[in-house]
Amino acid sequence: MSHITQAKRIVVKVGTSTLTYENGKPNLRRIEALCKVLSDLQNSGREVVLVTSGAIGVGMGKLGLRERPAETERKQAVAAVGQCELMFIYDKFFDEYNQNVAQVLLSSDVLNNQATRKNVENTFRELLEMGIIPVVNENDTVAVDELVGAKIGDNDTLSAVVAILTSADLLVILTDIDGLYDANPKASADARRIPYVAEITPEVRALAGGAGTSRGTGGMFTKVSAAAMANEKGIPCCVMSGATPANLYRLFDGEQIGTIFGTK
């Protein structure tokens, strides 16, 4: 566990289902708890990057929409409303713990261009050197399925990309389940959590079936895929429940929690 407890630069990804209630409204108590823990980790000497989902989900809640929009233009509009609200909430809570944050919106057309990708890397480097917590999201206002080549696909993948861009020591994905199981825990009472995955094989990927919620786009499959991307660059990944953000302390204290991919 030393590669976890000694990790200095960490990328933490939080999903829509963790950030919002079923009605799409932001779960302020949980977001505040997350901001408090990440601020404390930053104070302890670690460098924190937050990758957040939730722009469309929060936008849906603010606009009173029950279903995720299907139309391109509607997605763009809802994401624009939600991103504004989401950053307002993060800025307010992080400011209460004396942390400065910066919004970073990314799309694959930026990351696939050598010059602009280098600019992104430089921006992350400067923000971290200045002690600022980057808050990263995909630019959903312009990056949608119909814009060919402009969409990363999901924020699990984005979090792995950001971990690689920032040369992170650890990627943590907070979700609505406490790790990878050997069977579907919602369907089988005998399902058991797998604490460590040294190598992501086809068999491991087969265990990660399932889609995301009505408010999000991810599922365990995208999380395992993100872990594989990070592992290829030597970055371990922990997938764990985001219901209690203070459990991050337990992770960095060396307790076994969630599923850790790519042990060294």
TrEMBL record:
Pathway: Amino-acid biosynthesis; L-proline biosynthesis; L-glutamate 5-semialdehyde from L-glutamate: step 1/2
Binding site for ATP: 13, 175-176, 217-223
Full protein name: Glutamate 5-kinase
Gene encoding the protein: proB
An annotated Gene Ontology molecular function: ATP binding
GO biological process: L-proline biosynthetic process
GO CC annotations on file: cytosol
Cellular location(s): Cytoplasm
Function: Catalyzes the transfer of a phosphate group to glutamate to form L-glutamate 5-phosphate.
Family stated for the protein in its record: Belongs to the glutamate 5-kinase family.
Entries under HAMAP family matching the protein: ProB (MF_00456)
Keywords annotated in UniProt: Amino-acid biosynthesis, ATP-binding, Cytoplasm, Kinase, Nucleotide-binding, Proline biosynthesis, Transferase
InterPro entries (alphabetical): AceGlu_kinase-like_sf, Asp/Glu/Uridylate_kinase, G5K_ProB, Glu/AcGlu_kinase, Glu_5kinase, Glu_5kinase/COase_Synthase, Glutamate_5-kinase_CS
Chemical reaction(s) catalysed: L-glutamate + ATP = L-glutamyl 5-phosphate + ADP
Native organism: Hydrogeniiclostridium mannosilyticum
Gene3D superfamilies: Acetylglutamate kinase-like
